[in-house]
Every structure is written in structure tokens, then in C-alpha cells.
Amino acid sequence: MKNFIFILVKEIRSYFNSPVAFVVATIFAVLTGYQFYVIFAKFSQLSFEVQTNPTIASQFGALNVTEMVIRPFFNVVAVVMLIMLPMLTMRAFAEEWKAGTMELLLTFPVRDEEAIMGKFAGCMGIFTMMLLLSLPSVALVGYFGDPEWEVVVTGYMGLFLMGGAFVSLGIFMSSITENQVIAAALSFAALLLLYMVGYTAGLVGETTGKVLEYLSIMFHFEKFAKGVLDTSDIIYYLIFMALFLFLSMRSLESKRWRG
Amino acid sequence: MIEVEHLTKKYGEARGINDVTFSVEKGEILGFLGPNGAGKTTTMRILTCFMPATSGTARVAGYDVFEDSLNVRRRIGYLPETVPLYTDMQVPTYLKFVAGLKDVPYREINSRVGELMERVGLTHMAHKFIGELSKGYRQRVGLAQSLINDPEVLVLDEPTIGLDPKQIIEIRSLIKGLAGERTIILSSHILPEVSAICKRIIIIDEGRVKAIDTPENLTTQLRVSDKVRARIGGPKEDVVKALWAMEGVKNVETGAGAEDSLPYVVEFSDGTIDRSSQVARAIVEKRWDLYELMPVKMSLEDIFIKIVTEEGN
Ligand SMILES: Nc1ncnc2c1ncn2[C@@H]1O[C@H](COP(=O)(O)OP(=O)(O)OP(=O)(O)O)[C@@H](O)[C@H]1O
Ligand SMILES: [Mg+2]
Question: From the CB of residue A104, how many other CB atoms can be counted at a distance below 10 Å?
């Protein structure tokens, strides 16, 4: 536990000593902020038209801010995460392999799992800070409208769990190579693939479709964004994280054997 | 304190080390000497639990490096050859991080770090990031990190490489000052360095142990060299013929000098016994004058080169 905390603190510190955290968080905030602006502006325009034009009003009925702003916004955040998180996780182990600092780290009395969990938690810390940067947007919705707050809460839970899955996969990719670009490219490709299998689900047979849908990393987020907490979705993300953290352990072990 | 038995490491097909066996007593300083690619770093990486051996066993302080690696790692301080440090950390921050991981009690971390920085001469570098330090100062940070929990065993891979002569002397005396309770293994290419610091030397080449002994023994044992120098007064051709006639002669060289006392160097094929008396007898039998007779002394460098090249050809 003590080692885990020392490594966690060191990781967070090194994210802030390098421009990585700053750059990634800024890009994240700008992209999600811009998308939020687009979504929200559209919504305000529509609600203005609904108020002034009865024909449109009868067409749309009552406008739902949760459905028309909050949910699309969460989906945008999820996509931006998919793009930005590999850049956050790529350095986790690759940088240390390259610089040779792994040699010292692995000869300290630290268990492999403590090192992996420390790095995982470090990335999760930075990711959480990024996620907090999107709160002002949601607060703005709350100020002007009346969103369903339980959807906001479950949505953030879903984003956090999905981010954990992204980070664990990124950590694993970073543990198998000493090249940060390769680590980022592999994580991005793998996440994109897991994102896209959901879309192909409709094209294949029913059973295969179900399997593909279950594998899809975004499919499990949908219910969170609707305010529904389903244990099977939570379990999916937890298993995903456990699997890739376990694979990272095996990867460290095999790297040791190869010397 | 350290027992290594039949240790072998293969990198895929490539050879790392082959059947290395040695042991180190508590409090001893052992020098690891060998040319590039000999297997020094490989052996040290196995001892420090960075990587497992292909076969054989190694025990440090009674714990197996593979089975009981955490217990070994708690007791070892390691300075890798490349001195890998986190360049984006400041010196004290880094040392505190290592102290934490190496089980220094939380309350003692600050005082311990300050004490060590003073000891290795880093106090005036406290505000710097490690990336800004020169090679010599990084080496000191590396040394400080290896000493942070006052380990029983120190493994130093080429601790003085890349330093200027003044720093070499400083670091050497620092290492010497660490001896006593502590067991130290250090590697080097430079023989005078190991013989100045170490009580015992292992010469390793192409992954195999070629010799283990004290510097003094290595020298005396091998200084009974395979060459004898003699100044002899006698007809040149006859002298050369008589020298060649002796048992086990490999080569006879004639040097330049006064006609009546020419120097000769006789080389024997077997250098394990002193041949001076044999040469003396041969000369005296012929009733020539013997002005000077002595085995050609080998420097430690010669010995090193001899041991590493001997089995190659
Ligand atoms: N990671 C590795 N992969 C493959 N081969 C390796 C690896 N590390 C070392 N070797 C090989 O193992 C042998 C021993 O290398 P080692 O680094 O132990 O030598 P060394 O005695 O430390 O040499 P130097 O004095 O140059 O540091 C060499 O032939 C080297 O090529
Ligand atoms: Mg080496």
C-alpha cells in the first residue's frame, strides 16, 4: 500500500513536471467545450423557435434538456476520451523502459502489481481532473434548464468506468514496448476497434451480433447515459480493467525474462 | 553473504553468462573485472533480481534471488551501469521517493536524505532537476540512491566510468569508506581500480569465470612469469643454442647491448613455475658469465590480458 502511494504520487508529479498533463487536459477541455457550445446553442435556438412558433411546438412537444444536451454531450466526451487517453497512458511504462529507469524500479522492493496499480491510479487521477473540467458545461445546463440530475450522476459514473477501461488498456500497451508512439498507436487502434464492433453488430447474425455488441466498449455506456445503472455494464468495465492490468503484469514478467 | 552457483543466462540464442560460480563473504569487497561483453552487467542484474537466470542459483543474505526476490531486494543497493534516474525530478524529491520504496521509516526519510546528500557531496545541488546535472553528479545521485536504506549488500556496476580523474579518486575513496559491515560487489574494466579497492578479484571473460583471487595472489601467482631475462657473457650463437636446448622453451630473443654481456629473453611455454634456476644452471654448466638473471615481471594489466586471451587462442 505504501509503495503504491509513493508511485502514485511520483506519477502525478511527473505528469505535472512535463507538459503532458497540461496539453492533454487543455485539448480535452477545448474539444469538449466546443462541442458543448454547438449542442447547447442548437438547443437554445430550438427552444426559442418552439416558444415563438406553435407549429414547431406541436411537432416537438416539450423539449427535454437531458435528452437533447446532456446525453449527446456525454457521448462527445466519451469520443474525446478515446482520442486523448492513449496520449496520457503511452508514457506509463514505455518511457521507463526506454530511459532504463525500469531497471532500478524493478530492483526496489516493489511488487510488480504495486508498480502497475500506482501507474494506473496516477493516470486515473489525471483523467479525473480532465473529467472535472467538463463540469462547468453541465453546471451551465443546470443554470438555464432543469436536467435530470440522476442522469448526470450515472453518466459521470459511466464515463469514469469507461475511462478506467481505456487507461488499463493504454497501460498494457505501454508495458509491451519502449516506444511511446507505438504504445499510443496500439491503444488508439484497439480502442477504436472495440468502439466500432458495436456498429457492425447489426450486419451479422443475431448471436454474433449480440456477442459483438457485448464486446463493444461504447455499448455498455449507453445505459449509463440514460440514467440506468446495470450491473452487467459495471461488471463489463471492471473485468476489462482487471484483464488488462493482469496482462500488464504478465508483460512485465516476460520482459524480465528476456532481459 | 552472496553465493552464486552454476549461474547461466542466455539471451535467446546469444550467450550472456555461462556456469558462473563464486561466493562473497560478509564485509568483503569483490571486484568484477572483464572486457566489454564479458557478462559483468548480466551477473549483477541477476543478483539484483532485475532478471531471472536461465539456470543455476544465486543467494543473497541467505535468500534466493528468484524465490525470495523481495527479501533480497530489501537488502541490496544497486547502481546500474547507465545510472538511470528520473530526469524530471529534483534531487531530494527523487531520493525521498527511493527512500519510501526502500522501507526507510517515514519519519527518518528527510534526515536520511539530507545526510546522504552531504556524504556524497550533493548538498549544493539540492534545488536542481536531475536532468540538469553533469554525469559526475548523476553518478553521485545514483550512489546516494543505492545507499539510502543502508543496505547490507551493494552492487555497483562500473561506478567510476565517465568521471574525471579527481572525481574518480573521490568516488573510489567514498566506496572504500563504505566497506566494513557492508558487502560490496563492483565491476570495472580497469584493473588498477579494482586492485586498489577490492580484497578479491574475479576475472570474467566471454561469460566464464577465468580466475578468482586476491590482487596480491593473482600477481605473485602469475608474476612467476613465463619469461626470464638474463645477461650472459658468452659466444652469441652458442648461448642461443644452449638456451633453446633447455626443456620447455618456446622462444629466445636476443637484445642489444655490450658484446660481452648481451641480454637474452627466454620464453617458456608453461608459466606456472619459476624457471630462473633452470636458466642459471644451463649457463653455469657452460662456464659462461651470468651478469643478471630475473623473471620478467608482469604488470597487473599483463595478467589481465593474459588471462582473458589465454583460452581464446
Ligand atoms: N538485453 C540483451 N539482449 C541480448 N543480449 C544481451 C543483452 N544484454 C547483454 N547481452 C549480451 O550478453 C553478453 C554479456 O553482456 P554484459 O552486458 O553482461 O557484459 P558486460 O561485462 O557488462 O560488458 P561491458 O563492460 O561492456 O559493460 C554480451 O555478449 C551481450 O551482447
Ligand atoms: Mg556492463
Answer: 25
pLDDT tens digits for range B16-34: 899 999 999 888 899 998 8
Quote the CA–CA distance of B283 and B281 in Å, as a whole number.
5
Residues with CB under 6 A from ligand 1: A 259; B 11, 14, 16, 34, 36-42, 81, 189
Q: Quick one: which H or E segment has residue B268?
A: strand B262-268
- Judging contacts by C-beta atoms under 8 Å, the chain A residues touching residue B145 are 104
pLDDT digits (tens, 9 = 90+) for B215-258: 877 766 655 567 788 888 888 888 888 888 888 888 888 888 77
Torsions phi, psi of B201, nearest 5?
A: -125, 140
Give the predicted TM-score (pTM) of the model. Answer: 0.84
| ipTM exceeds 0.85 | yes
Structural domain B2-221, CATH architecture: 3-Layer(aba) Sandwich (3.40)
Return the SS3 of B129: strand
How many Å is the Cα radius of gyration of chain B?
25
CB A96 within 8 A of CB B82: no
User: Residue B86 and residue A10: Cβ atoms within 8 Å?
Assistant: yes
CATH architecture of B226-296: 2-Layer Sandwich (3.30)
Give the helix ranges, DSSP H, for B12-134: 40-47, 69-75, 91-101, 109-119
* Domain chopping of chain A, boundaries: 2-258
